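Lab notes, practical 5.
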Amino acid sequence: MGPLAGTKVIEAGGIGPVPFCGMLLADLGAEVILIERRGLDTGSPQERGGTRNSEIVHRGKKSIGIDLKTPRGADAALQIIAQADAVIEGFRPGVMERLGLGPEPSLALNPRLVYGRLSGWGQHGPLSATAGHDINYIALAGALFHGGPADRPPTAPPTLVGDIGGGAMLLAIGLLAALLHARQSGKGQVIDAAISDGAALATALLVGLQQQGLWADARQSNFLDGGAPWYDSYQCADDNYITVGALEPLFYRELLQKCGLAEDALFQSQFDMQTWPQQKMVLARLFRTRSRAEWCDIFEASDACFAPVLNLSEAREHPHNRVRQTFVKVDEVSQPAPAPRFSVTPGKIGRGPPAHGAHTVEVLESMGFSASDIAGLRESAAI
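Output from the prediction step:
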């Protein structure tokens, strides 16, 4: 019974950030009903090799199989939407309208409805109808430019900056705000969440620094993009990596002490950019003298702003993550736990990912469809 218990959300089946947004809402207690293409409900996840069971973004949801391209299927979906608090969809602009499920008919039936639309480029603009992916959206937003070393092409963690940070999470915030407004005013609305907009919004801190003359448009030449020797990743003797991020003077002194460089004249001026390249060479040679585990023993109980670079499997086994249960197992599948944490209404993973169409009849019955209605939909191949 999370903080969103009693909230009903319809998710139009898709890929990428919309399912992640639906997962966030389900983790927080919302009843998320996933509308998927009819014809995919062929057996349990185990019977189909367990692939569905690893689709973590669908955990906690109910799945109904409807062919939205049939008039009866689209009409059934509209009746379901009419009883929901929110809808989320991630198709190209115009797709839901062509199905007869766009905001206009949906809000006409349900004036309190919050209609969340997530797309790469937004619902309007010169690029709105064109295809793209995370890397394209964050590139146009200015977020990709500063990722990676200066002598190589820009890089960014896959999907995290655009699809998830600028897309799914921004849509979730928009939905929650609009749901609060709808409950106070009785009026629903449409949310146009563009990943390119969200990625641009995420650069606000850097843009502010740039306006103050504290951030240059040159990769790896700033204090937070790997330009500073005390804010970067370094290779260890075992070819694993560690990170240091000793931005504040107090933490910088702690870093130098742990490295045995507290009295080294080269490191006395933290923000002297002229000395940064030489400082970085010294630190790189130093960190190559020990293994990652050895550096962890030296740094992890300190304020030197240190962490090892872990892969996904290693992250699940780190002592801090184990104590906090940052990762949990559901149906033998390891996955990130719900976040953030609530003191009174904690979120939880209600169930593993459902088989395609597993809840079609259950959901339709709960929405007031009669047995003859359901039989008719089945006979017409709408469900």
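Observations recorded by the TA: Residues 41-50 have pLDDT under 50 and may be disordered. The first helix runs from residue 17 to 27.
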